[in-house]
Amino acid sequence: MTRLALLALLLAACAAAGGPHREAACATRPGTRCVVAGPGYAAGPLHAALLGRGYRELWTAPVEVPVLDLDTGGGLRAVEVLGHVQSQSLALAAADGRSFTFRSVDKDASQLVTGPLRHVPGIRPAYRDQTAAGLPAAPVVAAPLARAAGVLQSEPRLGVMPDDPRLGSFGAEFAGRLGTLEEYPTPATAGRPGTFGALEIVDTDELLERLARGPSERVAARAYLRARLVDLVLGDVDRHPGQWRWARLEPGGPWHPIAEDRDLAFVRFGGLMVRVSKPWFPLLASFDGDFQVGSLAHQARGTDIRLLAPLGRSAWQEEIAAVQERLTPQVVDDALARMPARWRELEGERLGTTLRRRVSSLPVGAEALYARLAREVEVWGTQAREEVRVRALADGRLELVVTAAGAAAPHFQRALDPAETEAVRLCGFDADDRLLLESAAGHRIEVRRARRCDPPPTTNAPGAKEQTAHAG
């Protein structure tokens, strides 16, 4: 409780310690407007020392941005306010049948404060203030980088929502607001192709339900790995299951990940508050030359453990090389060019240097994540009758092969190195499934059936050491 008491005092001290607000003043051209993304995030020296500097210069700098075009897709019509906790978001329907989402740049994280925490003095203003740790242009910079690497992701446009009759009753809340407009991926319908050519699109909950039905439902594991490697480059700490949807691109084909919501890419949490609070809040990372793998893996631990299990070291090495080959310095520069000019002047050089360094050092961060996942491997069964064959190989590795009854080929096969793997947990297999151990007695890798396979606990207790891979 000593740390929490100290945190309460710090928050109360800086609740009113902000700097002066800056009025919007910059040159504009037809079709543009001068705005300040977050004047309330100005901070004096004490405030910044306690709650971090983040990207306050960008949030409080007047910038010229375009007014969004509601003629997109033959004309956009506001439909409903979406239920995002932090963002003010608006769903819009296009005349051509597509769907779009407008999301405000400014967030209100204070709405996440619940339970006893809400009684801590100054906690709500402090949560709200941490929006300044995020890059206000994060989605528009992250999307072209992800797409260049081969990840399915819509490309948002940054701009001001116009005061337009097509907003209807939503105009009072959204007109004049700075945000991003992007297509919401939808599957094919009669007469209209799906986004990315998708025949079907499901969320993560439905994906996991389908995977449990039988081996014919499967994930494009390499595509998911590539997306996670891009997350490492972007320093995107918020990749929980709700940040993904999944597209089937061909009849009966595998499910490919669609990455969504890049608000916490490039995030820079800092200040004394982070040093005091980080044992309780693993996401408090800072985008720099090092890969803070403990933070980057925390939200995605459940999906990573399950969906990356089929991939051994060689697959990781191939995907690392592919991401590095695609994210060239020119691609990085082109992505940063999506930011307003004033923001580029303030942060473009530092962001570009850090991104290029993280691309070149990606094998370091990826190795740390691989080692984390390889230590205890989960292999999931399905509702089909299956046979799990485990045998020791001549080179000392342990091979696992899972085959459905009557199938001509296995749907899971991986050789595990005891230098990397301590245990294998067999999840979701029942008494009707056969477990065959061939020459595996006494092997250093333990293989066991698990009653439950929840994500393992993370090392976020007070005093826990952050796992960091240092880039060269």
SSE order and pairing:
Blueprint: H1 2-14, E1 32-36, H2 45-51, H3 56-59, E2 62-66, E3 76-81, E4 89-94, E5 99-104, H4 123-129, H5 138-148, E6 157-160, H6 171-174, E7 178-184, E8 200-203, H7 204-213, H8 221-234, E9 244-248, E10 255-259, H9 272-277, H10 293-298, H11 301-307, H12 313-326, H13 329-336, H14 341-360, H15 362-374, E11 376-380, E12 386-392, E13 398-404, E14 412-416, E15 423-427, E16 434-438, E17 446-450
Parallel strand pairs: 11-15, 12-16, 15-17
Antiparallel strand pairs: 1-2, 3-4, 4-5, 5-7, 6-7, 8-9, 9-10, 12-13, 13-14
Helix pairs in contact: 1-2, 5-13, 8-12, 12-15, 13-14
Quick recap of the structure?
This protein is α+β, with helices and mostly antiparallel strands and 472 residues long. The chain has two domains: 366 residues, no CATH class; 76 residues, no CATH class. It has 15 helices and 17 strands.
